[in-house]
Amino acid sequence: MKQVAKKTAFVMAALGMFAGLVGSTAARADDMGSTPWLVRVRMVDVNPQRSNGAGGGIPADSLDVSSRVQPEVDVSYFFTKNIAAELIASYPFSHSVELNHGTIGTFQELPPTLNLQYHFDGLGKYMPYVGAGIVDMQTFNTNIANGAYGLSQSNWGEDLQIGMDYALGGHWLFNVDVKKMFVNVGLTQNGGTVLNLHPDPYVMGVGIGYHF
Questions:
Q1: Is 70 helix (H, G, I), strand (E, B) or coil?
Q2: pLDDT of 84-134, one tens digit each?
Q3: C-alpha torsion angle, residues 64, 67, 73, 78 (rounded to 10)
Q4: CATH 2.40.160.20 fits 2-211, yes or no
Q5: H or E element, residue 162
Q6: Residues 156-174: pLDDT tens digits?
Q7: Which of 136, 143, 138, 141 lies closest to 153 in space, CA to CA?
Q8: Hey, what's the torsion of the CAs at 73, 77, 83, 86, to 10 degrees?
Q9: Distance between CA 146 and CA 186 in Å, rounded?
Q10: Range 187-190, long-range pairs (CB < 8 A, 24+ positions)
Q11: Rg for the chain (alpha carbons), in Å?
């Protein structure tokens, strides 16, 4: 219950900050001479960590979720020249699961993420930023140990972010971005959770952006 209350408070605080910034939309357009919308396309590497509890006959830290490289799209909305909200989306990531280095199954996941960011200015073409927010890792198409195990489907967590845009000219940007996610995923058996996975992936991306 404490974990649920903590995540609920985090979500409510993020939404409150989001709503409080809506009134400053016009300031962004005036300062930048453009619309407040920025769209990026990145190639990302989702790299989960090896960490799990013990249970269901599985020793601690013996499960490994494979990394995955594929494109993603994110949309940012600037409330001011420094403050933005970023929504990150992609098509599902497919992962294999290994137990003591032997593959025991696969699953897919989709981690929609909403971040509140601060963008630094005054550095010419270099525009670094930091962010933090919430992620909901949705799992589906799970097939582990021929159906003996399942995964919890909705897994809320938090993330931290650091990145940089570099102005290429016109409306185009080059982007590098690193996120660290903190998510627990329950491994289930016969309808009950037997242990928690802590994939806590690093998500490293490189791509281009267009500021409308």
A1: strand
A2: 999 998 889 999 999 988 999 999 999 999 999 999 999 999 999 999 999
A3: 70
A4: yes
A5: strand 154-169
A6: 999 999 999 999 998 999 9
A7: 138
A8: -30
A9: 17
A10: 187/52, 187/55, 187/56, 187/58, 187/63, 187/144, 187/149, 187/150, 187/151, 188/149, 188/150, 188/151, 188/152, 189/56, 189/148, 189/149, 189/150
A11: 19
How many C-beta neighbours within 10 Å does residue 16 have?
A: 10
User: How big is the chain, counted in residues?
Assistant: 212
Place of tokens 């409306």: 171
Closest CA relative to residue 50, chosen from 204, 151, 201 = 201
What letter would DSSP give residue 54? -
Tokens of 182: 């903190």
Q: Biggest alpha carbon distance in the chain?
A: 61
| Entry pTM | 0.82
Query: What are the residue boundaries of the structural domains of the chain, listed by start?
Result: 2-211
pLDDT single digits (tens) 46-62: 999 999 999 988 999 99
